[in-house]
């Protein structure tokens, strides 16, 4: 891009103010913030009042602004802003995973029809450069698996429950440290990780998956007895987002997993994120880094802004390869289910039970279930029941009824 980037910035919270700082500390970038639009007129701010306003038209109708950076915390308002900006032929950089996961194809088409770029590296695991790597580095490889810790708040909580704290204590601590929102639902019930997974699936496998079609179950109901079970077996509890290609089917879900010490995510603790990308030729690679925070997230936004200076656009190369790939829920998975109420365990029908433990105040079962049987249970709202996936590869049922273990790919 020969012209300079004149930025209209929406939002001056954690990430917006971080971007302001990193842009001012970066000398070599040909971009400046021309206008900032925020929402709350009563808030005291660290910047001069003449730099910001409250009307989105101040950015969207300003012909000097050729890039809109959308960093607000309201996905519906962001939809209005981003779609209008693209229609007005302004490039857009966003960090809003909910907006992107829910409207990805529409936004891709809008950007294409208007000849502008729509970039969003910060929306998936903040500072970890995973989207552009999938787009560029793995172009010719066949990706077979994406797996990782995509949510810093839940990972922080699980690190603390692993250290012996209760879920409530750990959540309070996450909140005190600024990791958890006052309503932590999106994080602890795994919606946030699911939005990120949907975005990555588009880039890695060329498949559009609607968030509503992807199972998300979080960590809200974990108890110390579940942590103890994992520890006794040398395992750790992690909330994993996962997409695995099994022949022409893709399974994708987010759920707590009990993982062994040699798993890539075992040592990824506290607010860190990790993403494993597995390809047919490249084998397994782990990206690890800050999954949130003002400056780390702003660094990913800055990287998108820099990429725009050389006219970068995502090409969605995997979408251009003709495949019959489709999302499946027809697979089996090995799980642990624990409760203080024996009747609760009956809510899950097992294909095959491996362990069935009963004491006066704690019951658990392990074994294979049909993944489809989890879907109607509304586990995020089911107290006194904790389900975790055990370390065995999922097995597809429909096309491979007798196979006990499949290699990924
Ligand atoms: N925080 C992170 O570590 C992180 C990491 C990755 C991605 N993200 C994503 O980045 C985005 C911003 O997150 P954040 O943590 O910076 O949020 P935040 O700290 O809550 O700040 C939100 C900002 O958006 C502004 N805002 C809200 N509605 C608006 C509207 N309709 N018009 C104009 N401004 C509006 C707020 O204005 P006021 O200042 O007037 O209230 C505030 O400045 C979200 O999509 C989030 O998911 C955040």
From TrEMBL:
Organism listed in the record: Lishizhenia tianjinensis
Gene Ontology MF terms: homoserine dehydrogenase activity; NADP binding
Domain named Homoserine dehydrogenase catalytic: residues: 129-305
Lineage of origin: Bacteria, Pseudomonadati, Bacteroidota, Flavobacteriia, Flavobacteriales
GO BP annotations listed: methionine biosynthetic process; threonine biosynthetic process
Stated name of the protein: Homoserine dehydrogenase
NCBIfam families: PRK06349.1
InterPro entries named among the record's database cross-references: Asp/hSer_DH_NAD-bd, HDH_cat, NAD(P)-bd_dom_sf
UniProt keyword terms in alphabetical order: Amino-acid biosynthesis, Methionine biosynthesis, Oxidoreductase, Threonine biosynthesis
Key word Amino-acid biosynthesis present: yes
Pathway(s) annotated for this protein in UniProt: Amino-acid biosynthesis; L-threonine biosynthesis; L-threonine from L-aspartate: step 3/5; Amino-acid biosynthesis; L-methionine biosynthesis via de novo pathway; L-homoserine from L-aspartate: step 3/3
Its EC number(s): 1.1.1.3
Family per similarity comment: Belongs to the homoserine dehydrogenase family.
Domain Aspartate/homoserine dehydrogenase NAD-binding stretches: 11-121
